[in-house]
Write a structure and sequence with these properties.
CATH class of the largest domain: Alpha Beta
Shape: elongated
Radius of gyration: 23 Å
Oligomer: single chain
CATH architecture of the largest domain: 3-Layer(aba) Sandwich
Distance between the termini: 29 Å
Number of domains: 2
CATH topology of the largest domain: Rossmann fold
Length: 354
C-alpha cells in the first residue's frame, strides 16, 4: 500500500527517510493566508502531515481527510490542532517535547533581565548622546532598576520549560522560587528546589511572574483582570508560552494604571499583533514576535523530529511525542472492527508507555 505524506512547513532538503520506507512526500508551504479549502485539498489524500501553527488543523480539516492518520508539529504546542476531534477520528497529534526548552527558558530569562536592568532605556539614552550631555538624566534611570537576588519568583506551569527557567533564575539568588501547576507533585518540584503553591499565593507573593503553561480551556486568560490585581505594583510579568494565557485588555489596563510595573511578551492573543494594538504604545512592555523557541539548532532538530514522528507512526514505531494519548483507545476499537484509515498500518501502540 502506497502511503503519502505532506510537508506543510519548512522544506525538507532530504526526504530519504520516507523514500526508503516507500512513502511519497509532497512539500507545499502553507500559512495564515492559506484558505481552508486549499488546505483541506492538500491533505485530503495524505496519510500523514507535518503542519505549522497556521492554518488551523481544525475539525473541518480533520473530518475532510479520511486517510489522515497522523499530524505532527515541531515544538510542544499543539493548540492549532483540534485534539478532541483528532482523538475521536483516530488521528494521532504529535509534537516534539523538549526540542526548544533551552531557547524558551533563555528568552524568558533575557526578557526578565532586560526589564530588571533597564537595558532598553540605557541603550536608548547612550545612543541619544545623553551619557555625556545629560549625565544626571541617565543616572536617574537607575532608580527603576531591580535585583533578582532576595526576591520571590513565580512560575505558572512547571513542565520542562518552567523547570529550565527555575534552574536559570536560581543562579541569580532569589530568596524563593514558587510554582503553580496542579498536575505536578511537590516531590518533583523538590528536585528543583521549588515550592508548589496556589495560584493566588504565587500572584500575591511574587516579584516576578513568568508563564510557561499550555494553552487550554483551563488556562485561557489565566492572567486576567483579577490575577493582575492580585500582583504587586512593582511586579514584572513574562509570557513566552501562548498568547491566550494573558488577557491583552487586562494587561494594557494594568500596565497603564500602574497595577504592575512592567511586562514582556513573546506571544500575543492575536498573531501577528495588529499594528493598531494599544499594547504597542507602552514603554513598560517588551514585545518580541513569537521567536523565543528559535535557533538554528531547534530549526534543524525540530523539523527532523517532526518528520520522524510521522514516519514512526506510519511504520509502527513510538513517536517522540503524542499529545492525545487517548487516541490509542480509539485506534484499538477501529482495528477490532472496521479499521478504516488504519487498515494495513502496523500497530505502534505496544511501543508506547502511557
Amino acid at each position: 500500500m502506497a502511503l503519502k505524506v505532506v510537508n506543510c512547513g519548512r522544506p525538507m532538503a532530504d526526504t530519504g527517510m520516507f523514500e526508503s520506507a516507500g512513502i511519497e512526500v509532497v512539500q507545499q508551504q502553507v500559512g495564515a493566508l492559506t484558505p481552508k479549502d486549499e488546505y483541506i485539498e492538500l491533505l485530503r489524500e495524505a496519510d500523514g502531515a507535518m503542519i505549522g501553527t497556521l492554518p488551523l488543523t481544525d475539525v473541518d480539516v480533520l473530518e475532510a481527510c479520511g486517510k489522515l492518520k497522523v499530524v505532527s508539529r515541531a515544538g510542544v504546542g499543539v493548540d492549532s490542532i483540534d485534539l478532541p476531534a483528532a482523538t475521536r477520528l483516530g488521528i494521532c497529534a504529535c509534537n516534539t517535547p523538549a526540542v526548544n526548552t533551552t531557547e524558551v527558558a533563555d528568552h524568558a530569562m533575557a526578557q526578565l533581565l532586560s526589564l530588571t536592568r533597564m537595558i532598553r532605556e540605557f541603550d536608548a539614552a547612550v545612543k541619544a548622546g545623553k551619557w555625556s550631555s545629560a549625565t544626571q538624566e541617565v543616572r536617574a534611570l537607575a532608580a527603576g532598576m531591580k535585583r533578582i537576588a532576595g526576591s520571590t519568583v513565580g512560575i505558572v506551569g512547571f513542565g520542562n520549560i518552567g523547570r529550565a527557567f527555575a534552574t536559570r533564575v536560581k543562579g541569580f539568588g532569589p530568596f524563593r522560587v514558587v510554582a503553580y501547576d496542579p498536575y505536578i507533585p511537590q516531590t518533583e518540584a523538590d528536585l528543583f528546589g521549588v515550592e508548589l503553591v496556589s495560584l493566588d499565593e504565587l500572584l500575591t507573593e511574587s516579584d516576578f511572574v513568568t508563564v510557561h503553561a499550555p494553552a487550554t480551556d483551563e488556562t485561557h486568560h489565566i492572567i486576567g483582570t483579577e490575577a493582575l490585581q492580585r500582583m504587586k505594583p512593582s511586579a514584572i510579568l513574562i509570557n513566552c508560552a501562548r498568547g491566550p494565557l494573558v488577557d491583552p485588555n487586562a494587561l494594557h489596563a494594568a500596565l497603564t494604571s500602574g497595577e504592575i510595573a512592567a511586562a514582556a511578551l513573546d506571544v500575543t492573543e492575536q498573531e501577528p499583533i495588529s499594528a493598531e494594538d494599544p499594547l504597542l504604545g507602552l514603554d513598560n512592555l517588551i514585545l518580541t514576535p513569537h521567536v523565543a523557541a528559535a535557533s538554528p539548532v531547534t530549526a534543524i532538530e525540530g523539523s527532523k523530529r517532526q518528520a520522524e514522528n510521522v514516519l514512526m507512526v506510519l511504520t509502527g514505531q513510538k513517536p517522540h511525542g503524542l499529545a492525545n494519548p487517548e487516541v490509542i483507545k480509539t485506534i484499538a476499537v477501529m482495528r477490532d472492527g472496521e479499521p478504516g484509515r488504519w487498515e494495513g498500518i502496523p500497530d505502534f501502540s505496544t511501543a508506547l508507555v502511557l
